[in-house]
Specification:
The chain is an all-alpha fold. The protein has one domain. Helices cover 84% and strands 0% of the residues. It has four helices and no strands. It has helices at residues 2-35, 39-71, 81-111, 122-156. The model has no long low-confidence stretch (mean pLDDT 95).
Amino acid sequence: MMNSILRFIEVFALGTWVGSIIYLSFVVAPGAFGVLQSRDQAGLMVGYSLARLHYIGMVAAVLYLVAGLALAPSLKTLLQPVMLGVVLMLLLTVVSQTQVTPRLAQLRTEMVSVDATPKDNPLRVEFDRLHQTSVRIEVVVLLIGIAAVFLTVRGTLR
């Protein structure tokens, strides 16, 4: 019974995290840029949502890792690809939340309007570069997350 609960926690945590990334990427972000009055408002909305997504991801990673360790016969379990993947997802999320996102917010404040700032302005250049970094991090976290869900579910079917 306890093993079933721990497996459920693993699948639920990863499923929630991966599903949240998909929802933010394919529903919230396009919706914000499609219906809000300005791109600056949309950017603020997406930034707010991304920060909450990161917190969900960090909690999900901790839950997954604790459940995985509870199921494991030894600490060597941390060296399994799925566990390493979740650790990498967590590290990338922490970097995005503590390094990339705050700098994007600071640049947004300094520019007042990202949309009105010329693309060759040094602040805008840095903002665009960091935005691409943020997107790439989320894509990598999503891809690792999809693989981790697959490996976790495959492990429960045996």
